Structure formats: C-alpha cells, structure tokens
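ok new one. same drill as before - structure tokens go in, u give me an amino acid for every spot. 100 of them this time. try not to just spam alanines like last time pls lmao
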C-alpha cells in the first residue's frame, strides 16, 4: 500500500453501479475507504503496468483505474475519468469488473 497521504487528484462526481452498490452493502462498507485510497494514489491490486500507467496519468490527465478486494473477495474497480480540456475530471465510478 502506498504511504502517500495527500490527495493526488480530484474525484469529480462520485457514482456507483448497481452491482457495486450491492457488493458494498453486502460487505458492510460505503466504499469511502477505497475512494480515499484511490485519490491518494494507492492503486490497490492492479498489475505493475497499470500502476505505472496511473502514475503517468497523474501528469498527463489520462483515466485512472484502481482495483480492491472487498472482504468477501469481490473485486471493486474505481475509475476516474480523464481530464477535460480545462483539466477537470468529471466523475469517479465504483463498479464491478463485469459491469465495465
């Protein structure tokens, strides 16, 4: 896990798919802890290539993807949109991999 404590980028509007909401409910969590980890640059269980792509995206404004295991081993993805022309990220979505 990353030791970064500062928020690395804005999340924009936070949304979740029905599957993610059900998985979060089933695991007795709101997902806030995962959103905090994501925003601080802790990319979770993504592969090294995706971690590197995320680190580069912090500079380029590209899309960011994190993945985490919920307590029941369900995988939760968190995706933050790429920046627009003004450098804003519109939304961050919590979803399950099969909802992508």
């Amino acid at each position: 896990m990353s030791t970064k404590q500062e928020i690395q980028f804005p999340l924009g509007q936070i949304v979740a798919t029905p599957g993610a909401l059900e998985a979060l409910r089933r695991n007795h969590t709101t997902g806030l802890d995962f959103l905090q980890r994501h925003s601080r640059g802790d990319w979770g269980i993504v592969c090294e290539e995706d971690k590197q792509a995320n680190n580069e995206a912090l500079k380029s404004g590209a899309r960011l993807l994190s993945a985490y295991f919920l307590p029941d081993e369900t995988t939760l993805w968190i995706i933050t949109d790429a920046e627009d022309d003004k450098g804003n990220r519109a939304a961050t979505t919590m979803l399950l991999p099969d909802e992508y």
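The first strand starts at residue 13 and ends at 16. and btw The radius of gyration is 13 Å.
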